[in-house]
Design a protein that fits this description.
The chain has 258 residues and is α/β, with parallel strands linked by helices. It has one domain: Vaccinia Virus protein VP39 (Rossmann fold). It is 30% helix and 25% strand. The protein has helices at residues 18-22, 46-49, 53-57, 85-102, 118-127, 194-201, 220-227, 239-257, and strands spanning 6-7, 11-15, 30-35, 61-62, 68-69, 103-113, 131-144, 152-161, 175-177, 210-213, 231-236. Strands 1-2-11-10-3-6-8-7-9 form a nine-stranded mixed sheet, sandwiched between helices. The longest helix is centred in the last third of the chain and has 19 residues, at 239-257.
């Protein structure tokens, strides 16, 4: 194993390429894979997909009169978001297979995606060997207004398991309404709210679970795992984002210590 970029009593972050590091993790050790990988979306054509994530996902919006306005905030970008459809499906199949190898029988996969990539995501998860269970809908409450088109205020989470799984006593809805992270608190371009991640984890029975996020970004999955009393492993290719995640976990550890 490479040396951890960050490590505390419950969370570990590795800096590097996901498939390479996944191959070094202990087989059958992970309870849940919860991740928000690059979508390689933001357009219908190759020229759209190769644009910067900042341009694709924080682009100009339309006013009611048809005029355009710039985004209200900007954030650092991230890599790996410019694959074409065929390459993206092969890539997802590769890392989801690697995740399956390190997951316990009955373990869970939660993978974020958008409407463009939803069909490919469900296919890729099954190509990776997972049993597709459902699609969870995240209602963000807000979305970029586009005149004459439905507002894009939804994202999706593909839920799958490694074969049969133990069930909780809860009856969770496949529609989860949680606001996006406010601009004043957001530290990542596509940051997911911790409350949303905690809602997903609530369907998994057990205490002190091991949660894996191979595309850790700003570390929201690891924060959610820690707050729920679980252990976590994160992998991140971009050192800038790994540092943000480590800083968030350090702050959380300090708060708990108080």
């Amino acid at each position: 194993m490479p040396d951890p970029y960050y490590e505390d009593g419950r969370s570990t972050i590795y800096l590097g390429e996901a498939c390479s590091i996944l191959g070094d993790l202990e087989r059958g050790s992970v309870d849940v894979v919860l991740t928000d990988p690059p979508y390689s979306s933001g357009g219908m054509f190759r020229s759209d997909r190769v644009a910067s994530p900042t341009e694709k996902y924080r682009g100009w919006s339309q006013n009611d009169d048809g005029s355009s306005r710039p985004p209200t905030a900007t954030y650092s970008t991230f890599s790996g978001d410019n694959r074409d459809q065929r390459a993206w499906m092969m890539w997802v199949s590769a890392w989801s297979t690697a995740c399956l190898t390190v997951t316990k029988p009955g373990g869970h996969l939660f993978q974020f995606t958008d409407w463009r990539q939803l069909p490919a995501t469900t296919d890729a998860a099954q190509l990776g060997g997972w049993t597709w269970r459902a699609v969870v809908v995240w209602d963000k409450g807000v979305g970029r207004p586009m005149k004459g088109r439905f507002r894009n205020h939804l994202e999706f989470i593909v839920w799958a398991t490694l074969g049969p799984h133990e069930r909780t006593e809860a009856y969770p809805s496949t529609l989860i309404s949680v606001p996006t992270v406010h601009a004043s608190k957001r530290v990542h371009l596509t940051e997911k709210p911790v409350a949303l991640l905690e809602a997903l984890l609530s369907v998994v029975p057990g205490d002190d679970l091991l949660i894996l996020d191979p595309f850790v970004g700003s570390g929201s999955t690891l924060v959610a795992a820690t707050q729920a009393g679980h252990r976590s492993i994160g992998i991140e290719l971009d050192e800038h984002n790994a540092e943000i995640a480590a800083t968030r976990l350090q702050a959380l550890d300090t708060e708990v210590a108080r």
